[in-house]
Structures are given as structure tokens and as C-alpha cells.
Structure prediction request, 716 residues.
Amino acid sequence: MLTKGVQMMFLDDRKRSILRAIIDDYIETAEPIGSRTIARKHELGLSSATIRNEMADLEEMGFLAQPHTSAGRIPSDKGYRLYVDQLMMPINLSDDEIETIREAMEIKINELSQLIRQASVIMSRITKYTSMAITPQMRKSIIKATQVVPIEPGKALVIVVTNTGVVRNCLVNISDKLLPDFLIKVSNILNEKLSGFTLEQINYSQLKELEVEIGLSGEFLKPILEGVAECINQIDNPEIYLDGTTNIFNYPEFRDVMKAKGFLNVLDEKEVLRDLLSNKNENIEVDIKIGTENPFEEIRDCSLVTASYSVNNRIIGSFGVIGPTRMEYPKVVSSMNHIRKKINYEINKLMGKNIDGS
Amino acid sequence: MLTKGVQMMFLDDRKRSILRAIIDDYIETAEPIGSRTIARKHELGLSSATIRNEMADLEEMGFLAQPHTSAGRIPSDKGYRLYVDQLMMPINLSDDEIETIREAMEIKINELSQLIRQASVIMSRITKYTSMAITPQMRKSIIKATQVVPIEPGKALVIVVTNTGVVRNCLVNISDKLLPDFLIKVSNILNEKLSGFTLEQINYSQLKELEVEIGLSGEFLKPILEGVAECINQIDNPEIYLDGTTNIFNYPEFRDVMKAKGFLNVLDEKEVLRDLLSNKNENIEVDIKIGTENPFEEIRDCSLVTASYSVNNRIIGSFGVIGPTRMEYPKVVSSMNHIRKKINYEINKLMGKNIDGS
DNA sequence: TGTTAGCACTCAAGCTCGTCGAGTGCTAAA
DNA sequence: TTTAGCACTCGACGAGCTTGAGTGCTAACA
Prediction:
């Protein structure tokens, strides 16, 4: 009899309701859920005994697990997976929350990275989990201006501006013999030659070729070209933000100090964060990685929810939330979706302002 | 008899040795220290009974405390205070450590903030505690150059450079009608008028007065002047770095999750860090705040060791280490001192390179 | 045939109680 | 003044017990 239930992987409505009820409750309480609790709290019109039988089936199918024989059931990763894919009821953000997001994400300055930083801060505030965000990949952005500004004899400032409004500068030491007038000439040539190219199109050897153009031996020009390369490098190097790390202490699953330590340690590594946020799937709005689906050992009992933002349908960066697998998925998913739209809107506004071409 | 010992606050050599031994041991083990342990491990030529009597005296004088009747003694804040002021034996850094510091703190770029960031990182690596650092107060630094660079119609980049090699820029939206040639004129006037002043000498109303000079109604100039103000503001706004936060998990006093949470939470506040690092005492090389001497409730069982770095004997910033009161003071103090000297050296080198005047 | 009441069983949590040992204070002798 | 000795204290630890939430199975019922 049981084998029949197990063999057919199809879950009837009753099993689905029970599973949903269990996961909803477990997300709320973090305690193993017993059959009686479900019978009492949810109006399923079933006795605890019936629910008990169903729960046994659900366990055998792998959606639930039992910490020990005489405890209630807790969801397995597979159970959460079904829950997020099919069972959970979407919720709407409260007016308050929407207002908070709106307020936080108004762009005050021309800097894209500020927007992303704000997004991260607000995500952790709203969800109460730990949030992270990575600033856009800039390899495809276009150089709008390159300038060399004389500061004092022996010193010049190299500046690169992109169409996305990102500016980087680099103070370089140059020969005392280079006069301001000459630097302005160099500046103009660089500006003319580099404008319109994307960052990824420019590499150092190409820069070297400009030396010929300018007609001056490499030694004098070298620091300036290195400055340009450094600026480009900095623009291209995405920043990563992490917020709400101490939120995890509010969840009983991190009562164990070693677990908290592991969690915080792994998030301290920029490389790890970059990896977690390198969301390749272009088709999915909000991606969810549950427990063991995660790439790193230390967060195998966490869930990671990520979303990407894009320009012209090309993903340029992403952000996410990480917390215990017992995560308020409905809330997190709607927050992420909302903020994602907000970022996209603001980013396209910003780009529109800054691009004259497209 | 006991009262005699207590009345005279003078500690004889024997009491001092015993107190030093107890604190040394407690720093190492984090366990209450008993009389027998001291008699065995340290060659004081005294029996445990004698030491016991002395310990009772030391407790009555407030240098030691007893968690409960049948436990050993632990140092009180007052005990630590005496220890750091008079008892502890200075230690030298190992060659390895000196090399590590040297390597980490070589300046590669012209940016002062990088140096301070490195100092913080290296402090936490060497001491195994949590470290923090604040970038210099820049109010006294001198404006070396101000530039307005046309980027495209309707957009200009405002740049401010100081004698300390700090550069900030601000992309501003301007009227389409302002032509590049005019912007260059504005740039020259600004450069001429602002150079040589310190940041604190310049305020917005002064900037407004320049409008007259340039001879153009405020509406056109406003965004540019705001850009200058924003740059100055950003330069003046010190950055704060925090490293090695998860180090605290290695110390048994932070096994309690709530304590760890309180600690991490309080250090999450920029304001708190700024406060902790606002070291006013100009005479002291390395300042130590023990336990209850600290201003914030959450770190009353921590010790904070800070040091300042300066230019021309004027303190411009500071850095520090925070950890349990049971801190390896000798190690921390010598590390701080070493790094302090290193920073001072590098900073003066950097300033020397960048200042042409003084 | 599916549902439910009833019952025996399981097991972690929490309590008490006794043992152990590190440490103390006091006393008396050296 | 120092020290050996001894009675005493008290937390840590583990064994044994109780409690209660929860289960699986069986038999009766609709």
C-alpha cells in the first residue's frame, strides 16, 4: 500500500496541502512539526492519524525528514524545492515596505555603485537576512572621455569616464620635462583614439601602439598609459557589498558559534561572494539555491536567493539574500522581484541620461 | 594583619610578581588560576599556601576576583590596568612578523587610504584580534588643483586634488549652453582661486562669491560649485576600515552567541568606530582602554588598544585593536608601536613626495 | 476502501542526585 | 614569616529518572 504511494511520484492535492502546511509552520517556528499540530492549526478536515499516514508517505518520498523517531517532521531540501517551485503562496509587500524601498533607492548621485549599495542595504533591512550585491560588469561599457590633467611639474592625473557615468582617476608621476601644453595634446589624442571603444576592446598592447601616434619615446608616456590601464582595470573590477551579516544571530540554526563562524568566514571572502552572485541563468527572474544545491560546504544548510539586473536584456550584475534553508521564501522572492524591477528602472534611467548614443 | 596589607596601597615585589604571573597565565589559558598552578609553573620559591595568602590580599585590594568560592582567581580591570602600566614584560616582534608588516605596507599607489587599509588588515592578521583604522582627517590638507573637464554637452567632471595626493571627482550635469572653452576658463579661475587653501578654509558661501569673479549668473555655475563642495566634502569624510571581525570566535569569552552578536553589532556602526578611534590624547603613543573604561556597554568586557599617526607632530588619524580584556597586551602594544612608526614613515614619505611647499 | 480512535512505544529534554577534583581558608607547627 | 595539612566549597560531569510530544500500528467504523 505504501509502496503504491511512493511509486507514483504524483502528489495529490491533500499531500500537497499537508506539505505546504508543514513547511509554512516550520519556517515560522523552526521546530519539528507533528501531525497533531497540523490537524489543529490548519483546517484540513482531517484527523491527526490521517495526517500521520500522509506524513509517513511524504517522508518516504523524501520531502520530509525526522530528526529522531519520536520527533515531528522537518522539510528536506527536496521538500523546500517542491515548496518554492509549486506550493508557496505569493505574498505582496506592505505599503510601508514599498515606501521604504522607494525612499532608499532614489538616486541622488550619478554613481551606479551607490544604487547597488543601497539595494543591498535595503534587502537586508526588509528580509532580515544577510544580503549581498555586486556592481555591474563594465566590460561592455563604452569609454566616453579620457583626459590627462597636469597637476604640478612631475605629476598628472589620468581620468577615464564611461557612458555609464563611472569615473576613475589615477595620479601618476611623470617626467618633469613634460609641459602642460604637451600633456593637453596627449590628452586630446588619447581622448580621440579611445572614445567609443568598450573597455574589453582595449588592452595594454593596443595602448602601447598609441605611443607611435603621439610620437614620443615610451619612457615619457609609459606612466600615463599605465594610468589609463589602471583606470580601466578599476572600472572593470566589480565591487561587492555585504550587509546584515549579524542578522543570522537571530535565527536559532546559528546558535552554534562554530556554525555562525563558518557562515561569516565564508562570506568574508570576496571570491566566494563573486562566485555566489555569478548568476548565469538568463531566463530566470529569481533564482533559488536550497541547502545542498549550494557550491560551498559551509553554507550547505543555507538557502541563497539571487536575482539579476540588466540593461537591454543583457545581465550586467546581480544581488541576493542568504539565510537558513528555513527561509521566508514568499517574502524574499517578492522583495527581490520588486527591488530587481526598481534597479532595472533606475539603471536604465541613469544610462539613458548618460548615454547620448543608444 | 590583612588590613595592613590592604591599607598600604604599595605593592611589594612579591605581590607584583605573583600578580604578573597570574595575569600572564590567565591571558594564555582563559581559566581561573589557582595558587598551586602559580607555585608549580613559576619559579617564585614560594609554596602554594603563601601564594594563597598573597592572592587573598590581592583580591581584597581589587586586583583579582573570584568567579566563585572554590575557583581560582581571575584579573579584574584594575588588575589589568596595573599590569599594562607597570608589570608586563615588553616583547619583540619576530623577524617573520616584521617582514610580513614590511611587505604589506609598501605603498604601491599614491593613495593614502590604501596604506591605512593595509595597516588595519595587517594588524588583525598579526594580533588575531579585530582591528580598525580611520583614514586621516583631511581638513588641514591643502588644495593643490581644481579642474573642470568637459565630458560631453551638458556634462562636466569636477576634480579636486590635495597636497596629500587625494583626488576626488564629481560628475555634474550642466547647461548644454556652456561651451568647453568657457568651462576651461572657469576651471582656470577655480584652480587659481582655490589652490593653496586648506579644506576647512573653504565653505560653500565662499564658493558662491566666486560667481561674481567668473561673471556669470548662478544658475549656470551652481552645479559646478556644488560639485566642488561635494568633492571637498568627500575628501574630508574619513573612511573607516574594520578587519578580522570573525577572529573573536576563536576566544572562549565569545562562545556565547549573544555576546558575539553584541560585539559584532556595535562594531557595525560607523559612528561607534569613529568614536572609539577619536583618540584625543596627544602625549600617549599607545592608548589602552580596559573593560569598563570603554564608552559602550556592549564592549565593557573588551579592551581597546589604539594608536595615532601624525604629520608634523599633528595627529591626523588613528587605528586600533579590540579583543577580550584578556588580551595579549605585550604583543599588541609592540605590534601597534611598530606599525605606527611604519605608517608615520610612509605617510611622511608620501606627503613629502606630494607637497612641493612644506 | 479510506478514515479515525486507541494504544504501546520511542526518545530528547530536563530534573535530581552523587561523585570528583580543583581550589580555598584556616590552623598549627617549623 | 612560611609552610604543611586538613576540612570545606562548589562547579562540572554523568547516571538515572520522569515527562511529554510525537510516532506507527491495529482494529473498528462509515
Residues 245 and 276 of chain B are 16 Å apart (CA to CA). Residues 46-50, 53, 67-71 of chain B lie near DNA strand D (CB under 10 Å from a C1'). Confidence is low (pLDDT under 50) at residues 1-8, 354-358 of chain B. Chain B touches chain A at residues 110-111, 144-145, 147, 149, 151-153, 155, 157, 159, 161, 165, 167, 169-173, 245-246, 249, 254-258, 260-261, 264-265, 268, 354, 356 (CB under 8 Å).
